[in-house]
């Protein structure tokens, strides 16, 4: 009986080595860490339009408009194009997360399931300032791939195929999201900083002799807001680095698709996972 068990165990180990269980575990660690890394992207996306609104409010107050309701309403009207981009950004992140879950399932030889609501979300996406129509096509292709993997019962043997088919679109998607964060979002924060600076400086100059205590409080408030925006700019750069690292890890899997079960792939993909972990820590409480 023991001999039979040993034979069964030996066959299982051999099968695992052939199919790359160890390497696929490393891939699961990479996808799992990547999913965790993208968890806060919707919070950042929410701040795209909000940063624009805050900037407009600062400018309006400086010009003498003090009605809070009107301030908010007028600012939102001016930032409406960014609100559309925010929606597309969040949907794009949903697709990215669903794709990473798909890879995770395939690497674990599990049945692929996904949130089918993303089919409708992507189908209803329109053009926007930061995520144009061409990117919507990229999202549609990824959603179709995820749907095929789910409906056709893909398992571990289809892992290489999924990576191969998705890589061009994943690289495009991650590059686009990274550029939005690193360039557009950071620019919005810089504009907000400048608008706040102009308001606070003008107010301080006008009241420095009349209300010295108020000026001290204003200076302290300005310092807090400036520090917060600086932290967000640094965190935005870190988030862009996270997306770039995920793209590089996926490119590695694409380049080594014929040897996904090899020790070399295991070591290299673990290196990318190790790079992601401290980056996640840096943005933990920033968004």
UniProtKB/TrEMBL annotation:
It comes from the Bacteria. PROSITE patterns: PROKAR_LIPOPROTEIN (PS51257). This is Lipoprotein. The lineage of its organism: Bacteria, Pseudomonadati, Bacteroidota, Cytophagia, Cytophagales.
